Amino acid sequence: MENQNFSHVDSNNQPTMVDIGDKKSTQRYAKAQSTVIAPHEVMKHFKDGEISTKKGPVFQTAIIAGTMAVKRTHEFIPFCHPLPIESCKIKIRVHENNKIIIECETSTHHKTGIEMEALCGASIAALTIYDMCKALSHKIRIENTELIEKTGGKSDYKKII
Description:
This protein is α+β, with helices and mostly antiparallel strands.
């Protein structure tokens, strides 16, 4: 296989972490979102902004799990650099048609982006909701994990809604 200037492949076509040693630290921000579609069997347990199950408060637990995932993203994604997380905010809200929207916002002042951390946080929060509600139904769907916005670094991005 020929090296086609992939950033995570060295001149010997071996996997490698990108060298960020000469990059300038800048303020970095990312926002990601995951959507969970919960069937009626799950949503009938939704009251006062929370789903309560025998396992405990679902959304509160998902926020904690998502935050833990943000802080450990470099342990899950092979070439992610460990980052000093300066802020992580996870919001969970319920929309029509039993859609549970998870938003994860992250920020740091560093040499590399923080979007993988935001994506990881939203994803793990969604998986936690599934895990805590699967005894109620296995028809739960996780969909549309995506980057909504990022700033800092070479380029900014904002999803057009």
